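Hello Y.,

Per our agreement to keep a running log of every chain we model this quarter, I'm adding this entry. I've kept the format consistent with earlier entries: sequence first, then predicted structure.
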Amino acid sequence: MKLAITLIVLALLIIVGPAAWQFTHTDSAAVPTSGLPWQIDTPAPGESRVFSLTLGRSTLADARTRFGPDAQLAIVATPSEAGNVELYYESITAGFIAGRLIVTADLPAATVEGLRERAAKTEYMQSTTRKATLAEADLPVALAAPIRAIAFIPSANLDEAIVVERFGAPAERLRSNDHIEHLLYPAKGLDVVLDSKGKELLQYVAPARFDALRTPLRAAADQAATAPPAAAPDKP
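Predicted structure for the entry above:
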């Protein structure tokens, strides 16, 4: 039995180990010059460029050219919102870092509403979140839209030490609840979400639009800070 457990652990290290190691330790001579999650350029004031895409200038079509056609293009929305046009990749490789990628279009709410009304089909993803598959005739409109935000979920598990090593010390920290903390980098347009109960998330926006990302996070942090502690469960 001990031998079997040892073999399983070794197999997991072989599968997961290289991804985590490469995220934290790389040979500088072999690191790509662009395309890695921590390689964020600021080509102009208020702008940022990551994964070879410039937020606010590059389009969803540019993202599809960059990462390939194997993606889902749909409107994702909860019942209380109009939703966003998103290009979703189940698996991409950024340099040598694997993960999932979501590219959000910057479109007026009225345009999104029209796309949703003409959607080919609408289905539930999880809970009450809905996904509306765009009509074929509306694909050019969606693909021509500029990129408002990019979300990357790396396959490798991250912790605070890894984040600081790659991105530097955050300018601000905001805690949403007991297991989610946001490390904010306004100058880079980056929000790193550390989740002790789930997967980490890297959210990118243009620095000029960072306040729109930070404001609801601060509100959630203030609410969490003033919320009364959860009651202890009754003893049996």
